[in-house]
Specification:
By secondary structure, the chain is α+β, with helices and mostly antiparallel strands. It has 7 helices and 15 strands.
C-alpha cells in the first residue's frame, strides 16, 4: 500500500511539474518560433531579392562569360515595387576599369541599316561624350546640361591605379550586313566581334576600348525586349581582353525599352537606343569584367541604379511638330533624353557630375 501511495504521489508531482509547460510553454515556444521565423524572413528578403536580380542580370550562355544586362522597364518596375532599386551604396570591388588617356568606341552596325539620320544621331552622341573631341560643340538653351557633363559622372569612377578615361573617341565605324544571319544565337555577338578584331581585320586589339554592336530592325535576339534592352561583357581573344556590348533595335520594343512615344529627334527607336547605349558604355567602363569593378550589394552597376530615371527634363518640339522631352544637349545642338547615372560620392542619381576625388 505504501508503495502504491508513493507511486501515486510521484505521478501527481510529475503532473504538477508539467502543468506550466502544458499551459504557457507551447504559447511561449510558438511566439518564439513565430518571431524567429519572421526575423528570418525579414533577414532573408534582401538576399532573395538579390538572388532574383542576380538571375536577371548575370546571364551565362553556353561557354560565354557572364553578361550584365540592362533590364526592360517592366522588370525594373517590378523590381522596385518589391522595395529594391537604388537603396544601397555602390562599392569598388578592386578590379579594373577602362582607364588611360582615351576610351575608344568601335562601332558595328549589324544587319540591314537604312536609317542614315539615326546613325548620325548615334555617332553625334558618342562624339558628344568627350569635351576633348574637337567636333563637340554643345549648343542648347541657357542652363542645358551637356552630354559631356553626363560623362563626367562616369569618368569620376576609379580603380586602384587610375580613373575611368575622361576622353571618349569614336575610333571607327564598320558595317556588317548580316555575316551571321538575322537570327542571333547566344554566341553570335561574340562571333561578330571576334572576327573583326586583330591584325589585318577591321579593328585593332584595344584592351581599353569598347566594341559596340547595334543591330537593325530585322535582327532577332533571344531575350531582347522581353528581358533586356542591352548588355555588356568581356571575353578574351588570344589572351587579350575584349570588352563588348550589344544593343538591339528599339523599334522592336516600344513598350519595354522606350521612354516616350515622341522623341526630340523625331526618331523614337533610335533616341531610346541612345539612352541604352549610354547605359552600357558607362557600365562597361566602370565594371568591364562584370565582376570586380563597381557594383552594389544587389549586383546593380552604376547605370542600373538610375535606369529609367531622367531627372529634370525640358519639353521641346521636334521637326515633325510633336512635343517631346530631353535632358541633355550635344554635338550641333542635338537633344537627347538619357537616363541619369549614379554618383558614387553622393549616392544619388544625377545628370551632371558632382563627385570629386
Amino acid at each position: 500500500m505504501a508503495k502504491f501511495l508513493l507511486l501515486v504521489l510521484s505521478l501527481m508531482l510529475v503532473c504538477i511539474s508539467l502543468l506550466p509547460a502544458a499551459s504557457a510553454g507551447p504559447k511561449r515556444v510558438a511566439r518564439t518560433r513565430q518571431a524567429q521565423e519572421e526575423f528570418r524572413r525579414l533577414g532573408d528578403r534582401q538576399r532573395q531579392l538579390s538572388d532574383r536580380k542576380r538571375q536577371l542580370i548575370n546571364v551565362r550562355r553556353g561557354s560565354r562569360p557572364l553578361r550584365h544586362t540592362f533590364d526592360t522597364k517592366p522588370i525594373y518596375d517590378q523590381w522596385r515595387a518589391q522595395g529594391s532599386g537604388s537603396s544601397t551604396t555602390i562599392e569598388y570591388g578592386g578590379g579594373p576599369v577602362l582607364d588611360g588617356k582615351t576610351l575608344k568606341i568601335y562601332l558595328i552596325y549589324y544587319g540591314y541599316w537604312q536609317d542614315g539620320y539615326g546613325q548620325t544621331e548615334v555617332e553625334n552622341f558618342i562624339r558628344s561624350l568627350s569635351s576633348a573631341d574637337s567636333s563637340t560643340k554643345a549648343q542648347g538653351e541657357a542652363g542645358d546640361q551637356t552630354v559631356r557633363d553626363w560623362w563626367a559622372i562616369t569618368s569620376s569612377y576609379y580603380s586602384n591605379t587610375s580613373t575611368v578615361s575622361p576622353i571618349v573617341n569614336l575610333a571607327k565605324v564598320v558595317y556588317d550586313k548580316g555575316s551571321r544571319g538575322t537570327k542571333f544565337s547566344d554566341n553570335t555577338a561574340w562571333d561578330v566581334v571576334s572576327n573583326k578584331v586583330g591584325p589585318g581585320k577591321a579593328f585593332p586589339y584595344d584592351a581599353n576600348g569598347i566594341y559596340l554592336i547595334l543591330t537593325s530592325k530585322d535582327v532577332t535576339i533571344p531575350g531582347f525586349c522581353k528581358e533586356w534592352c542591352g548588355w555588356h561583357t568581356m571575353d578574351y581573344l588570344k589572351s587579350k581582353r575584349v570588352v563588348y556590348s550589344l544593343v538591339g533595335h528599339h523599334a522592336q520594343c516600344p513598350k519595354s525599352c522606350d521612354a516616350q512615344v515622341f522623341s526630340p529627334n523625331a526618331n523614337p527607336a533610335i533616341d531610346a537606343m541612345i539612352s541604352t547605349i549610354a547605359h552600357e558604355i558607362a557600365e562597361a567602363a566602370t565594371n568591364p569584367d562584370v565582376k570586380s569593378g563597381w557594383f552594389d550589394a544587389e549586383d546593380e552597376e552604376n547605370a542600373d541604379k538610375c535606369s529609367y530615371y531622367y531627372g529634370d527634363t525640358t519639353l521641346t518640339t521636334n521637326i515633325k511638330g510633336n512635343s517631346a522631352y530631353y535632358n541633355l544637349v550635344g554635338f550641333n545642338g542635338m537633344k537627347f533624353l538619357v537616363q541619369q547615372n549614379w554618383d558614387w560620392a553622393t549616392d544619388s542619381c544625377v545628370s551632371q557630375a558632382v563627385s570629386s576625388l
